[in-house]
Task: structure prediction
Amino acid sequence: MIRSLLVANRGEIACRIFRTARRMNVRTVAVYSDADAGARHVQEADEAVRIGPAAARESYLDIEALLAAARTSGAAAVHPGYGFLAENADFAEACTQAGLTFIGPPAAAIRAMGSKILAKRRMAAAGVPVLPGYAGEQQDLAHLEREARTLGLPLIIKPAAGGGGKGMQIVRADGELPGALAAARRLAESAFGDGALLLERYLPAPRHLEVQVFADQHGHFLHLGDRDCSIQRRHQKLIEEAPAPAVPAEVRARLRAAALVVAREIGYVSAGTVEFLFDGSEFYFMEMNTRLQVEHTVTEAVTGLDLVEWQLRVAAGETLPLTQDQVRLSGHAIEARVCAEDPARGFLPSAGRLALLEWPRLDSVRVDAGFGSGDTVPDNYDSLLGKVIAWAGTRAEAAARLASALDVTYCAGIATNERWLARILRAPVFLEVRHDIALLDRSLAEFAGPDTVPVQVPVLAALALHQASAAGARSSPWELADGFTPNLILPIAYSFACRARRITVELEYRNGQPVTATPSGAQPEALAEVQTGEQTVAARIGSQRHRARYFIAAARIYLWLGAAAYELLLDDPRTHEFSATAAVGGLTTPLPGMVVSVAVGVGARVSAGDVLMVIEAMKMEHTITAPHAGTVKAIHFARGQRVPEGSELLEITPE
Ligand code: ADP
Result:
């Protein structure tokens, strides 16, 4: 058996592989770039080796650096995970030549799938259904144009050497054809060093089905059922499930058999996935991923197997532990990919420090995470923070369970997509399996969620803030901001920015107890049964009881109410946080944003309250004013520049 294992990867997949290795008493070796020195996968391994700077090309994609790390750590085997070098035949070969066991297929099997053109021709010849198209040798653009016209529109152009959906072009109108072919050729050459293109009929609304296959070194092949990964955004999978729903039994049987034909055809070994498009009646071979996939977890949930354990055993020369008849599938599992990206801002990737990342802890819910509270998400790599997987007896129950699990996933500090994923899981179009791979690109807006801010949100936020400031100031009775003055009614106003709105709430305290809340432009609401803890705040507001989870980070309050998450920015002069009066002479921003305008120049004399700078953050403009009179000594950001959280914006020498 393998004694020590280096994982040539990072994030959740490195952590996930280490978990199985530990259980099997295999010594674990992590590798890391400078951006990942403090990462979770580094902490979880028995040993960790630095492989280079942040850029993936100089670290996770550097074959020499990885081999050197294996040598210095004495690792006997290498697991590539997914992405990076996982489907690089040269890497597999280099590992083998260096005397290391590569946890994956033989280099020849990876190469056989390396060209979409050759793979498609070979599989068509083996009797696997493929979409009509051109997968020929003659590659000059004029010839491709003629072939495209014969094929008809719409069609898709794919770089033969491509991957990750990169460089593909969809052609819908005849006039677009020459331009699209030329663009695809350029992209293929620059991105993959190979200009060869594959033409294929484009299916406007197919589902993505795939089959998990496994093979050992002794010629045994089996499948572990199918999956559906049709919830995608721009060809990136977001929600995956096993088994694939709404597939007729006869089609499913043929699909699984076809996957095994593909695996046998290329002499496959280890875990692999054969991907197909399904148009509702027929399926077509797309490609085979010659590695463990992100979504292998849903297959593990319905089979009860550990695919990484199988990979290690197969690599050590063992035979497959089960026969096809012994593989049992039970229930339904769905996975959601929690990513550091902002659904409210065009899925802009988000990076930085995770002030809070709390994963769900529920029965039949599995979490494979690469990050947690306090970790920093570098902006050099992909945005996957972790995966939440729910299992249940039926698909409907699994979807509900996963959505509930995402409701109790709490992240603060950077933008994440878990609430957006939960909305998809609850949408009738998903529950009734009326979705397809183009759903999100077609009707993204439907899942945006309400843009409103219910009145209880600012009220609960104000109560939470009040509690926090009272707790923080308890040491000095004069600082106490709980309004405790016997028999006196004392209003305290909080002003927030939330979802491009400015909302003010006035809390009225009697004998230290909050009694009414008056949101801007609304009637006062009676408050009762107010309970504030360190993380939760509850109150009866008018006639309704509400309970929320909250988290405070500098001038921001995160509030989670049911399935919705709110981020409120406190703009309260008493806190002196957002008005940028934090430090004398030094003006910092508590939130990242962009400089919209700079109103002063170096050397300018300013009075207290003068406008210095305007920053756009969270879709709102915020004015930075002078905390005191003085002279502008330095300006650190110009118009149009991004300002990271905590940046000093300018300096003023006090008068
Ligand atoms: P890559 O290797 O770059 O991931 P694939 O061939 O696997 O390329 O295709 C990626 C994605 O593009 C698929 O998951 C699917 O969403 C879409 N796609 C590929 N081929 C077609 C097609 N013929 N019709 C419609 N969509 C397609």
The CA atoms of residues 397 and 575 lie 46 Å apart.
